[in-house]
Amino acid sequence: MAHKSAQAPVNSFDITDAGELEEAAGRYATRRLAELEDGAPLTNFTADDLSEVHRYLLQDIYPWGGDLRTEEVGAMGMPMCRAAYVPDMLATVMKNIDKNPPSRTNMDEAIATVADHWGELTIVHPFRDGNSRTQRYFFDQMMRDAGWSIDWTVVNANEVHAARYIAAATTDSRFLADALRPGVTTIDEGVDGTLQKTQGIRDNTTSAELFHQMSQFRVEHPGQSFHDQHITVTTPPPGYEVMSAPNATLRAGTGITDGTTMPDINNTISKTNDAGLGD
Fold it and tell me: How large is the C-alpha radius of gyration of the chain?
């Protein structure tokens, strides 16, 4: 079972306090993200490209930026892909991306495809830290390359984060597609630079609560949209109750045993950031 590291990852400033390192990583990564957004677009979507994005975003803080992890990690209280399987599973995800790019003519199909790929990449969790930052840019650019734009200022960051782990745990990416859809337009109608404007707005506790709400909703209301019934503002509505989640089967091929139960909410909140300070 993955566990939370007792100290901050090795970094260029020898920072040992996890909170201080998270703040520093966020500050430097936001500046690098702005450079990426304002620069040439990403047009290739391979494992090497993903690693290069990670290296670029975190080059100021982590000397190991771009390197695949060798540690066992967890997020949302769940174990991620075992480290020994990461290279092969990452190659499988990238092969699927190459074979099934997002549609250039149908917006809903494009969103569904990207949500499916994002769920797959989430469970692989290829890096010790910085996965969410890297993947947001990677899939934002994938949508743009297909002719679509995501306005991240109108997308609920907590909902997207929670929905990614629903997709990772259950292979059901509908929640993630629903979370992304409000921000998607054609490239001509899109707004530039919204990733850098929304960097760091996610709240881990809120994301964990939403994750459990989604898990329960998925069982009690199959086929219905969690987003349409629950997401109206950037945080959960007042009176949102935390529910325990049912059993779920995690993805095959990641070294994780099937039949793993969804974690207790208090355990989830304490472990939302296990896989890395900024995730």
Answer: 17
Cα(35)–Cα(193) distance, rounded to whole angstroms? 10
Task: Quick: pLDDT tens for 46-64.
Answer: 999 999 999 999 999 999 9
Helices (H), the chain: 18-38, 47-58, 86-99, 107-124, 131-145, 157-170, 174-180, 194-198, 204-220, 226-230, 265-271
Indicate the domain borders of the chain. Answer: 18-271
Element spanning 61, H or E: none
Please name the fold of domain 18-271. Fic-like fold (1.10.3290)
Torsion angle in degrees (nearest 10) through CA of 205, 183, 171, 74: -30
pLDDT digits (tens, 9 = 90+) for 106-118: 999 999 999 999 9
Q: 78: phi > 0 → left, psi -120 to 50 → alpha, else beta; which?
A: beta
